[in-house]
Amino acid sequence: MFPDKIFFVGYMGSGKTSLGKKIAKKYNFNFYDSDAIIEQQYGKKISEIFRDEGERKFRDLESACFPELLQLQSGIISTGGGFPCADSRMEIMNQHGLTVYLKCTPKFLLSRLLQSSSERPLISGLNAEMLLQKIILDLTIREPYYSQANCIIEADARQPEEIFEAMTKCYLS
Ligand code: S3P
């Protein structure tokens, strides 16, 4: 029913990977993750790439893996939070499949990210107040990209089944 490729986009903590994996398992899709592909191919964790070689290198690796994402056969493809925000990638993903923006409020993202900030190099070491400011600022820059998605789904505290239902409704409408 869906196009072969379904790209999940959104800010860190919006559930692209956690919800994506659950939806893939329950509804029988393959699941891919741009960060996992980069880690596997480059042989380093994302946090190590940032630490040893800096954000620029990581963004180059994102660019390099994009053609490969587009070649994947079928399934849900979770993209890193900054991934859609360069080089007309939203436009290109829209041409290659269905894009789904998991849209969360800054407050919800804050609560999710406070639990996992240590694994995320862009926000490690930030206290709650600084992190909230960063989320709000980043979203003003990133929303124009994320909002180009075919389906925009309010995703605060939603279950995988609810997200899947919303995706289906959006795609069929
Ligand atoms: C980033 C988000 C991360 C990861 C990297 C940079 C970003 O992915 O790609 O740390 O720029 O927002 P998640 O959105 O899966 O956490």
| Secondary-structure element series | EHEHHEHEHHEH
| Anisotropy-based shape | globular
Proportion of residues in β-strands:
5-15%
Structural class: alpha/beta
Query: What ligands are attached or bound here?
Result: shikimate-3-phosphate
User: Given the structure, what is the number of helices?
Assistant: 7
Q: Strand arrangement, largest sheet?
A: 2-3-1-4-5
Largest sheet: 5 strands, parallel
Key traits:
single chain; 173 residues; alpha/beta; five-stranded parallel β-sheet; 13% strand; binds shikimate-3-phosphate
Question: How would you characterize the overall build of this protein?
Answer:
The protein is of the alpha/beta class and 173 residues long. The chain is 55% helix and 13% strand. The protein is built from 7 helices and 5 strands. The protein has helices at residues 16-27, 34-42, 46-71, 89-96, 106-114, 128-146, 160-172, and strands at residues 5-9, 31-33, 75-78, 98-103, 151-154. It has a 5-stranded parallel β-sheet. α2 packs across α3. The two termini are 13 Å apart. The model has no long low-confidence stretch (mean pLDDT 96). Residues 12, 16-17, 35, 46, 80-82, 120-122 line the site of shikimate-3-phosphate.
